[in-house]
Amino acid sequence: MNILLVEDEPSLRSGVADLLSAAGHTVEAVGDGLSACGRAMTSDVNLVLLDLTLPDLDGMEVCRRLRNGRPGLLIMMLTARDREEDKVSGLLTGADDYMTKPFGARELLARIEAMSRRTRPELNGPERIEVDGCVLDLGRCEAAREGKSIPLTAREARILRLLYINRARALSRGELLEQAWGASARLQTRTVDMTIANLRQKIETNVTLPRIVTTVKGVGYAWGAAC
Question: Which of 40, 127, 164, 166 has the fewest beta carbons closer than 10 A?
Fold first, then answer.
């Protein structure tokens, strides 16, 4: 993968860059948020490893800018902030994964490989779906309603794809965690609920009576009957 490493501590930045290069990845490393935004928006980077404590822009703001500018870009937060609220906030801001320091080299490489696999087109199904007045362009990670373009994160697009190709049944929160976040994700099932709530705010006309992503009590979530 083409990886942009954003880390302000020089020795850690150098060590992680060497680790990734030895594993066969192409790595560029920067030490501040503004440089990260500039490089990620103008290069062929497909994964950003992002520290949160940076000298200019906070990592959360960097994540917001990158997610708005490049919805399909993979972002992994790599930070010492280990509180659950920080992890949830990072994921809801748009990160695809969240890993806390200190971390093991093997786990980091395994998570990167898992993220790489999730970008491959292993899921069958259409790239473009029209449902309930909303156009979902899953390949471009965006939706459109009434002529207004709505950016989706790569994970939100994957959740929609999973629900669509499994539309004959409901998917449990555990299944969504495993398939959309990766089997190694150390997250609680309420992370799924919060992500679905954000997704509904984007694509549904009535979040209390959703027609695209519906809740199946006692099970999880399903593709709505409106298709």
Answer: 127
